Amino acid sequence: MRPRKSMKMRVAAALATVAAATLIITGCAGSGASSSSRLLNVYSGNPGNLTNNFNPFVADVAYGANGAVLGAVYEPLFYFNSAKNEKPQPWLGTEYTVSPDGLTYTVTLRDGVKWQDGKPFTAADVAYTYTLLKEKPELNLYGLKIAEAKAVDDTHVTITLSQPDYPNEYRLLGLTFIVPEHIWSSISDPAKTTNQKPIGTGAFDFGQFTPQSVTLTANKDYYQKGQPAIPGIRLVTSTGNAAALNSLNAGQIDWAGIALQDVQKSFVDKDKKYNKYTSIPADIKVLMPNLSKAPFNDLAFRQALSLSIDRDAIIKQAFGGTDTPANPTSLLQPRDEAYIPADYKGKTLDQDVDKAKKILTDAGYSYDGSGNLIGKDGQPVKLKITTVTGYTDTITANQLLVQDFQKIGVQATPEELSLGAYSTARQNGSFDLLDDRIPTGPNPFQQFSDSLDSAKTAPVGKPANANFVRFQDPKVDQLIAEAGGTNDPAQLTSAYQALGTYFAENQPYIILSQNGAVTTYRDQYFTGMPTPDNLWATPSNWLSGNIGYIAKSLKPVK
Question: Where is the Solute-binding protein family domain (predicted)?
């Protein structure tokens, strides 16, 4: 995850600090503060200190805690609501068309938009942003296939691709933040700049940074009349889920992206008037096996590990019962039901320890007198399961997984790393098994592309973009290319079914559950959050674009 600032900013309110196990927010965060002057206090779910880097083109900034800042300061062309199957909503762009060959996007832009330093926003800025991504591949986080970007006039731009990439529209138009040419064209190395004073077109100006919080203030010159109605946002940090929950229940946090083991009991019941939550099938929780080394590069071993897992216990005890059983294809249910192959419809992943042991012995593994699994190298099979310090849900899940793996003789040790160390290990391939998730978008393309595309991996020791398990198979690359190159529903279905079948048969990732994506919030001071009955936006605040899109529409309680 990753993020930015402005000249006309006024910093309102005091800052947040982390004290022992509880996040304490001072100043206007108190329960007696006026709603009209109170900042929206947001915890995105990333523990530990924030970094003073707001470069929107750096992966660990855009995908990390600072991504929330990026999504409030910068804006993309359109908003894609992954909670619903609907047309993208206008943002900096008002409408777009795609040429019959799928190569050229013609976008109409809003008129009268200004950058937060007062300079006019035009199509030249949009063309510059996409040209920058084409000319500097290290900035192209999403592997966009950009051939050319041109400003037709001040409010029209064309973006031409080198090949059709229909399912990737979400990232092309909805995840790419537009930056000002008059600032970024003077940066000598855009990949290395920390962009500590970000200036965008968003509803919130960058205010002040500390390692514990970032303050954003309302952009008084924002182009959408009446927005934002709230005075600003404070992104805060915490030591982990438990501390953030304490602050949430104390009314010091208004909106939090934390996983809770029992959201009803631990949060909603604490204040039934104001404490609310949403839960939507968002993505797939997985164990990421390091496919570059044994025994994880052995399909039989991965199959056995998967069969040893009691997923019902993990969903109930670690994930609070808000997750649901996942389909072996990794396709989301019910959203992607039409793409699930007939052989896998209605299927889930069940525990079968006896079958797991047979797969292992048939594949050449053995057991010693103490029941420990002996690998093909003659050594006991030992591994580490790694998660982030403070992630109470995955910490609990790992404790359960250690017990499950022991049933097939695998000696597993849980490991906790700081978020920074975890991210580095994941990117560089220095891990055994990682607790993580496969993100998705409005369709299955992103999850297959990010998890399986060989172009998004790298040799061990080099940073991978998204394919952290180091998976490579030319046949799968071809299927991903077919899915990206067609707008024909039948061809798209065929490609997704083939990818889903491959995933189920080869288990390059070990699926745990379908993420219920719990988002907790309090509506004591602010109204207008997406609700289960009205998901006008995706409420997950760890997705960078959602912060700005939702916060600009919120209103203080009168």
Answer: 87-454
